[in-house]
Amino acid sequence: MEPMHNIPARGALNFDEAPFLAIWEVTQSCDLACKHCRAAAQPIAHPDQLTTAEGKALIDQIAEMHVPIFVFTGGDPLKRQDVFELIRYAADKDVKVALTPSATPLLTREAIFKFKEAGLVRLGISLDGSSPEIHDTFRGLPGAYARTIQAIGWANEAGIPIQVHTTISRHNANDLDALCALFEKLAIVMWNVFFLVPVGRGQLDAMLSGEEFEQVFGKIYELSHRVDFQIKTTEALHYRRYLLQNNLEERRMGHGHPGVVGPKPAYEPGAPTSDVKTRTATWATRRVNDGKGFLFVSHMGNVYPSGFLPIHAGNIRETPLSEIYRNAPIFKALRDSSKLEGKCGACEYKEICGGSRARAYAVTGDPLAAEPCCIYQPKNWDAQRESEAAAFSQAQLAPVTPFALS
To answer: How confident is the model at residue 392 (pLDDT cuts 50, 70, 90)?
Structure first.
């Protein structure tokens, strides 16, 4: 993910035509066994994963759609021997590629410098705890913490911007201050805070409650005032509501920063800490959501609204990516806020938030249902109706059936 000043403004993209962010799961092969793993990755690559030629054809389509950010993820991308060739091919097509490797012995200093040489614009790496005890337990491999810290140092040496991903669940929700203090020493450019969606190895009992979400939002908001890197949330769309509510309240009280609520000038590297709220608000108000400015391509070419929302919309071996994104019923439904159900459908923040469609699907089996981890009461929402809907959703927590759109 390139520096913010090179990314088009939110208004420059029509999310009905093309996504702001596309992710390709280049392989499911990985040597880790992370507790939350969406992919439930395996050590051996699937024999039907996209070939080098098919990967290049996908890159061609990403270039034609003018997608600003294209991410190689996994599994572990380093389990593909052609990963450097694919990055170089994308760079030659002016496609800006970021990559999220796993912290295994494959992530060497030599590999990181080869990424830079091939044209990688950003390296995303996971760090889920401020200590080896927390992180290594979560990642299922002793030494993963030390290897991650080492890799960040190598990336800084190579001149590749570093984005750190942290998956927040009950195991580390109290570790955020210590994590942030660590990040300030590591020269990162962005902290991407993932909120657990109970898919793959991610378990329902590890997911935060609505009240706990609000507590973490408060901590992130507090930290955003005093750090010099960007903070972005993933699968916590209602942080946008929280952010705007607090910005408006600060302005009402006379000690806020006028103008923070709307789209702001893009972040320039080296901007002072006082501008952090502006940068956080810029990301928060992009309005990207599952299937709305976002798509995910699996290792076998299946296209989904996100990696956490496993509703199959088509396969790039059979249908052009642009056609799937623009015309698949599930994508069209997710981009239409009038189809949102429950209190999300009634919420005055639905155009900038919309709730996590992946979490709604994981909990209820309906991707258009209300965000299950939001405690906000919309002005036009009947509390009695909410209670009845919650009781119904609880009754549906038995195995869910696949969602289909005609």
So the answer is: low
Residue 1: closest CA among 258, 286, 237, 239: 286
Contact 58, 64 (CB under 8 A): no
SS3 content of the chain, % helix, strand, coil (to 5): 40, 15, 45
Which residue in 286, 302, 267 sits closest to 23, CA to CA?
Answer: 302
* Residue 136, φ and ψ in degrees, nearest 5: -65, -35
Percent of the chain whose pLDDT exceeds 90 = 65
- List Cα–Cα distances, 54 to 6, 50, 300, 360, in angstroms: 28, 6, 10, 33
Name the DSSP class of 306: B
Please, are residues 86 and 37 in contact by the beta-carbon 8 Å criterion? no
Question: Which amino acid makes up residue 370?
Answer: A
- Quote the CA–CA distance of 111 and 115 in Å, as a whole number: 6
Q: Is 153 left (phi over 0), alpha (psi -120 to 50) or beta?
A: alpha
Q: Give the position of tokens 């069209």.
A: 332
pLDDT for 41-75, tens place per residue? 566 678 899 999 999 999 999 999 999 999 999 98
Q: Which amino acid is at 70?
A: F
DSSP 130: S
pTM: 0.83
pLDDT in tens, 257-290: 433 333 333 323 333 333 444 444 444 446 899 9
Q: Provide the b/e sequence for 180-189 (b: ≥16 CB within 10 Å).
A: bebbeebebb
Q: Label residue 66 left, alpha or beta by phi (over 0 means left) and psi (-120 to 50 means alpha).
A: left
Is residue 27 within 8 Å of residue 79, measured between CB atoms? Answer: yes
Cis peptide before 75 (omega within 30 of 0): yes
Work out the burial of residue 94: count CB atoms within 10 Å of its CB; fewer than 13 is exposed, 13-18 middle, 19 or more buried.
exposed
Place of tokens 């614009």: 121
pLDDT digits (tens, 9 = 90+) for 144-201: 899 999 999 999 999 999 999 999 988 898 999 999 999 999 999 999 999 989 875 4
115 residue type, one letter: F
Q: Of all residues in the chain, what percent carry a pLDDT higher than 70?
A: 79
Q: How far apart are CA 329 and CA 117, in angstroms?
A: 40
Q: Which two tokens stand for residue 34?
A: 């992370």
